[in-house]
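User: What would this chain look like folded?
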Amino acid sequence: MLATLALLLNTVSVSFADQFGTTVAPDWQNWAVFSQGGGVTDTTVVDDQSGTTSVQGNVGVWGTGNINLSGSATINGDLYYRSTGKLSISGNATITGTKHHDAAGDAVLQNSSNEAFMESDQLWAMPPTPGYPTTINTGSNMTITGTGHVVLSLQDFVLIGGVFTIVGTSPATTFVFNVSRNFSLSSNAQIVLSGITASNVVFNVRGTGSDASISGSSAFQGILLANFRNVKVSGSSSVNGEIVGNKVTLSGGAHLTHASP
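Assistant: Here's the prediction, encoded as structure tokens.
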């Protein structure tokens, strides 16, 4: 009887594969920038990088697999782009790592794409933690503090200047921001983390709404997961974490650094 009960318990047990409590493997988090390239019909280019932008980490380009690098844009890492896609480089743009443009690279990209969609779905299904706001749209300083696993269900996450501080009471604290409508940082807005790292904060922006944008001299920390949104990082903005979007456009002096999970 005990052996039968143990077998049943093992059968229904659920293993958590990532830091946010989903069952999705974390391979999708291995990128500084990942372009899904699906769901938008106004372009066939899924990744644009221009000006003096720099990316510290690997870049993945799925969908059509097309990527444009111009000016002094730099990728300090490997580039994976779909075997049916095209890489266009002009000016002094450089890639310091290896270019993967073959069937093996396609398999890596397809896996990450699938995982990112599954991750977004599972994060979206998580119930919100009581006591937190249902929309954030501010130009003032703001602090939120959490313990364990914190989920916010938001209409908007819009910072127009100011410092938004996220405090975790332990290094294992995680924050999930599920955003249904608008996501933007502008006018030198800053996301500051205390007690936790960027890989423990995810902004899950759903649907095919307006562009998710980080502009001016804003500073973003965390994972921006916006599978169906175009993402624009411009000006002298900085990102410490990861960007996943439909089309990702980097311009000006934007700087992205990957934060490993």
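The longest strand covers residues 174-186. If you want, I can go into more detail on any region.
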